[in-house]
Amino acid sequence: MHRSSLPKGQRVFGSRFHYKIKRDNTSNTLQKLKVRLVIQGNRMEEGTDYEQSFAPVPRSTAGRAVIALAAGNGLHLHAMDITQAFIQANWADLPEDIGKVYISPPPGVDEDEGIVYEVLRPLYGHVASARCLHFTLAKWFKERGFVQAGFEESVWTRPAGGKYGSDLIVSTHIDDLLCACSSLDVLQRFKQDFLESFDGTDDGEAKDYLGCEIISDWKAGPGTITIRQQGYIERVLRACGMEDCAPVSTPLTPGIHLSKRDSPDIVDPALQRRYRMILGFTGFLVQMTRPDLAFSYAALSAFLACPGVKHLGEAEHMLQYLRGTSTKGITYSDPGPGKRNVLMGWVDSDFAGDPDTRKSVTGYVCSLNNGPIAWKAKRQSCVTLSSAEAEFVAASICGQEVIYLRSTLRGFGYEQKAATVLYEDNASCIAMSNNPVNPAGSRHIDTRLYFLRDMVREGVLKLAKVDGTKNVADALTKSVPFPVLAKHREYLLGTRTPFQAFFASVGCTGAAATAA
User: Fold this and answer.
1) CA pair distance 239, 241, nearest whole angstrom
2) Angle, helix 309-324 to helix 230-239, in steps of 10 degrees
3) What is the largest CA-CA distance in the chain?
């Protein structure tokens, strides 16, 4: 079509060829060379060229939950990949109308001047392409009886019976699919059906997913699955020039408290670039497979705007820690009858741990089938007046995560029948969650107080006492010395099996132990 024949006001976007080298996540060896035609969507304007750009993808927590369920229940875990995913979507599947899209020929194409192309399928680079693919996939899954799992709009489950005959869980992250099923035959029928509708590849047993290496070690025990990022860590160390650094035993210097007083009046641009690069790299690790880095990453992230020499030194200290722990990851396994698929959590706080704001630090970890699926280390948004209040705020934050996890697991078909036990080392916090005690010291907590109490009364949560020295979440609230870190890291990474054996050592008895 010639540009002169377009309707008045019709926009035409540039295009180009995009080249990519794809490497193996583990060995970093060359896998393939890729080239695709892309639209230069950086000039698109919301409301004119598209209505919405949001495309839901699963939280990393949901992906870990699928892997944990596969390990605990002996499910077959397979992966698929959609080839050139966006161009297999259909503009008509979008709930909003974005009109026609035109591009000019890419550089190097011998075409008459003034010729433009109409884009009949979403191209990479268009702001709404990922959104369009989501709705195309959603239409396909719904036609086959799949339903969305909990709050996750891109994780699909198929109950037993129907076309496939068995339960299925499928997590779709743009063009990457992670599938779990108890029957290999059913899983093969599903994959065949999917690949008849979409051009893609059947990668068989899942070996990697979203940059994580998946290792199924059946010799280590029935259903043992480990996820790690060894190849990614090695690439990070090379990019930062730290591949030959001396390893250290802790992510941060034990007992250190970073402060704004260590920030310079004028930031060194080169130092700041390096600091931000290190944290950008390590943030992905914390998000996916390394809860033992959660506190160090959160503490260092507070100084992204104005890092000093001391802050950079601690960031490089974190890389030294990675140098010695690059093979570590999260391990999931079958905890045995009565404990299988039971969600539980640990929560802790460091009262007034931030020296600049005197705000406390929240740390929590939620586990399933011997390994963590959710964790957080974060400075609290309010100043608390006592350690009990700080613990209460931390427990309420963890409670919000538990609500999400219980909903997601229910969508997967693994509903939590009993209350989820949160292990807490502060007796006052536990008392306030169960009874209206100490009104003078807790009346100002307001909404968090009522939220946590309601969750306890409704049977969603149950707080149980654990010894402070054995609280797994302790390593997520402060920089602890190596002996403490090593003890907690066994549980944070699921390397001490079974995870629930921890209860025998902390003296949890009665209803709490029964619920767990």
Assistant:
1) 6
2) 140
3) 81
Contacts of 288 (CB under 8 A, 6+ apart): 60, 210, 211, 212, 227, 229
Tokens, residue 386 = 């006592």
Closest CA relative to residue 331, chosen from 490, 209, 180, 476: 490
Residues 6+ apart with CB under 8 A from 183: 76, 165, 166
* Three-state secondary structure readout of 110-135: CCCCCECEECCCCCECCCCHHHHHHH
CB 200 within 8 A of CB 194: yes
* CB of 315 closer than 8 Å to CB of 234: no
3-state class of 167 per DSSP?
coil
Predicted confidence at residue 32, as pLDDT, reads: 82
Strands 12-13 and 15-23: unpaired
- Could you report the average pLDDT of every consecutive run of 10 residues in the chain (516 residues)? 84 90 74 87 86 92 95 93 93 90 88 88 92 96 92 87 69 94 92 96 92 80 84 95 95 93 94 97 96 96 96 97 96 90 95 90 95 95 87 92 94 92 90 67 60 89 89 93 93 69 43 34
Residue whose token pair is 């802050």 = 311
What number of other Cβ atoms are within 10 A of residue 210's Cβ? 19
192 CB-contact burial (10 Å; exposed 0-12 / middle 13-18 / buried 19+): exposed
Please state whether beta strands 361-368 and 15-23 pair in parallel, antiparallel, or not at all (unpaired).
Answer: unpaired
Task: Record the tokens describing residue 110, joined without a space.
Answer: 């011998």
- Which candidate, 378, 397, 515, places its Cα nearest to that of 445? 397
pTM for the predicted model, two decimal places: 0.90
Tokens found for residue 401: 């995560």
